[in-house]
Amino acid sequence: MLLSTKTFIWYISAFLLFDQLLHCHARNHYRFIVKEAPYTRLCSTKNILTVNGQFPGPTLRLHAGETITVDVYNKGDYNITIHWHGVKMPRYPWTDGPEYITQCPIPPGSKFTQKLILGSEEGTVWWHAHNEWFRATVYGAIFVYPKPETSYPFPKPHAEVPILLGEWWKQDITAVYEGLLATGGDPNVSDAFTINGQPGDLYPCSRPDTFKLNVKHGKTYLLRIVNAALNDFLFFGIAGHQITVVGADGSYTKPLTRDFVVIGSGNTLDVLFHANQKPGQYYMAARAYSSSAIPFDNTTTTAIVKYNGNYPSSPSLPYLPYYNDTNASFNFSATLRSLVSEECPISVPLRVTTQIISTVSVNAFPCGFNETCLGTNGTRFRASMNNISFLLPSIDILEAYYGNLYGVFGESFPQFPPSIFNFTAQYLPLFLEIPKVGTEVFFLDYNSTVELVLQGTNVVAGIDHPMHLHGYSFYVVGQGLGNFDPEKDPLGYNLIDPPLLNTVTVHKNGWAAIRFQANNPGVWFMHCHLERHLTWGMNVVFIVKDGQRQEERLLPPPPDMPPC
Fold it and tell me: What is the pTM of this model?
C-alpha cells in the first residue's frame, strides 16, 4: 500500500525527532566502566586501573553551561571515586568526588550515577580518581567548548589535541601508596613521565609507541595540556617553536608567548602552537621542576611533532630550564593575566568580607614504638594547613553536614596561623614540626567575598605547593617569595586582570593571595595537588552556607549515593 505524501512526511519527521532525541541522550549521558587492564611500558607488563580499558581515559567534549550524567560502574577490585577537576558543580557537590569529603567511595561491583553541572568554565578541565593514588592511571581530559552560536576569543585552530602529562611506575601503584603509609617517608619516585600515556624515545622499549602529532605547515593547533602527574610540576616545550598560552584552568588568558611553560600538578593550559618552522621532526618534551632536595624523577618524556612529508628521524630536544629553576617557574606564573573584554568580562572582588591566612607546611611526627620510619631524622612525614594535619573521617563530611550528624567534623580550623614566626627562615625550632591532627572545617557565609593568603613555610622543608579548590575558580591577585607582609604586599595586588584559576602555585617559601565570592553553597575540599602532601594532610574543607533564596541553597542528594 502506498503512503500518502502527508503520511510519509509525518513518518520522516517522527523518525528525525526520535533520532535527535536519541542522539541528545547519547551526547548527554556517558558510561565509565572502571576495570583493570594489562598495559606494557618500560619493557614490562602490569595490570592497571582504567576507565573503559583506556589509558589515559576517554575525553569528554562538552559545551559551557551544559549538564551531563556519567554512570560510573566499578568493576575493579578496589573502592573508587571520580572527581571532575575544574567543574564548578553549582549547588551540587554530591557528585564532586573526593572520598569521605562529598561521598563515600563506590565499592567494587557497584554503580554511581554522577551528574556534572558546568558553570562559566570554558577551555580545558579534566577528571580523575580521587581516592588513594588511583589517579596515576584513572584520568582524562574534558574539552569545554563555547556555547553554541559563540566562538573562541582567538582564531579557530586547525585541530585540537589533548596533551596529558603523567607518571608511570613499574611497581603497582597500590604498593607505592602502601609503602608511603608504612614507612612514613617519601614515596618511591616514578620510573617515567608520559605524554598521552607513552614515555617516549628516551626510555627503554618505548620508541615504537611514542606519541606523534602530525601537522601541516602553516596551520595552528590548540594543545590542551593537563598535568596529571601525581607529585611533580613539569616544564614543557616544543623544539624550535614558541607556544602561546590562551587559557588556563578553564578560563581564557591574555595571549602569552614563551619558549616553554611550567604547569603544576592539577593545572591545565590551553596553548596555541603554530607549525611555522622548517618542515621536519621536532620533539615536544616535559621534565620535572623540583625546588627541594627530596628525590624526584629526573627523566624526560618526549613526543614527536612531525610535519607532513618524509624527513630524517633525528629530532632535537627543546630548551627547558634546569630542574630547580624557581625563578623560571615564578616568572611564568607571575605573568599570566586574564583576558578582559566585552565578550570575556571578569569580576574581581574588591571589598573583602572574610580574610583567611593559612600556612602550608610539611611536618613530621616522632616515629612510633617499635617502628622504623623513613622521614627526616627517622620521623614520619605529615603535612598541614595552619598547623592542622587533616584526618579523613569514616563518614563523608557532606552527608554529615546535610544530615546534621554530630561528631564527624570539628569547626575549629584557625582563620589565621596559630603561631607567628619567621615562616621561611633557614633554620626553625624542631617543636614547630609537629602539627595537631583533626578533621576541621571552616564555614563561609553565602555570598561573602573571601581573600585567602597561602603562606609556604620552611618547616621540615620548603617546596612548591599546587593548591586546588573544589567548586570554585578564584582570582590570583598576588604572589611573592618570602613572608607575606599584610601591610605592604596588598598594595601590589593585581585587581585589574588577575588570572582566574582553580589551582594556584605557592612557590617554595613564598605566598599566594586569592579572592573569590562564596556563591556556591556546599562542602568544598581544598588541598595540595601533590598526592603525597594530600595523603599527609595538607587539606581543609570549606562549608559555604545556604543563602536566603531557594536558588541559593544546596540541592538535595541523588538517590544512589554510595553507602558509608
Answer: 0.94
